[in-house]
Specification:
heterodimer, A: mainly beta, 7-stranded mixed beta sheet, B: 112 residues, mainly beta, 6-stranded mixed beta sheet, 5-stranded antiparallel beta sheet, 0% helix
Chain lengths: 115, 112
């Protein structure tokens, strides 16, 4: 158990809908990262937050957005869902933001299925 | 854009045998190399973080080496056990970047 929690574990929804994935980082970690794993693709970085502020952005679609709240939990919002958004979404957390190659600890993931 | 390659894609090894696999990454602008072990239906589990050329890390029967000049890292497993069956992921991080760029992984199966 990494200490990172994600809810829900599974999510099934229809095209065009909007969903919210939630992540709670390890106690004391200030950085939260979101990754997407689609079929036949490696883990793709989406976005990073550090202590409530966006720090880095990857290949995140405009239909997707994220935020980190004062209690440091983070939410990833996916809207106007398409079939291709079906994937495993991971959240990871680490202690620092920059300047040190600290370990990113991964949550169990949320499997999103868009029908 | 970093491109991280892992080989082989999959590997079947007899219990008790030792094995190793490779992670290749761009050597320019390198900052850190991470190894993760990912069992089906579980979270990727952090194994090692390495930064310096010549780094060697060990955790039980698993060890890893790093060559930043030529851009590769090896992961070794000594005396494979069935519980070593998993996908092993490596991820590279560039200087000044926060994101990890992952390879596709090496899927290891240990045959009893």
């Amino acid at each position: 158990d990494s200490g990172v929690t994600q809810t829900p574990k599974h999510l099934i929804t229809a095209t065009g809908q909007r969903v919210t994935l939630r992540c709670s980082p390890r106690s004391g970690d200030l950085s939260v990262y979101w990754y997407q794993q689609s079929l036949d693709q490696g883990l793709q970085f989406l976005i990073q937050y550090y202590n409530g502020e966006e720090r880095a952005k990857g290949n995140i679609l405009e239909r997707f957005s994220a935020q980190q709240f004062p209690d440091l939990h983070s939410e990833l919002n996916l809207s106007s869902l398409e079939l291709g958004d079906s994937a495993l979404y991971f959240c990871a957390s680490s202690t620092r933001a920059v300047g040190y190659p600290d370990t990113q600890y991964f949550g169990p993931g949320t499997r999103l299925t868009v029908l | 854009i970093l491109n991280v390659e892992q080989s082989p894609q999959s590997l079947h090894v007899q219990e008790g045998d030792s094995t190793n696999f490779t992670c290749s990454f761009p050597s320019s602008n390198f900052y850190a190399l991470h190894w993760y072990r990912w069992e089906t239906a579980k979270s990727p589990e952090a194994l090692f973080v390495m930064t310096l050329n010549g780094d060697e890390k060990k955790k039980g029967r698993i060890s890893a080496t790093l060559n930043t000049k030529e851009g590769y890292s090896y992961l070794y497993i000594k005396g494979s056990q069935p519980e070593d069956s998993a996908t092993y992921l490596c991820a590279s991080r560039g200087e000044g970047a926060q994101k990890l760029v992952f390879g596709q992984g090496t899927r290891l199966t240990i045959n009893p």
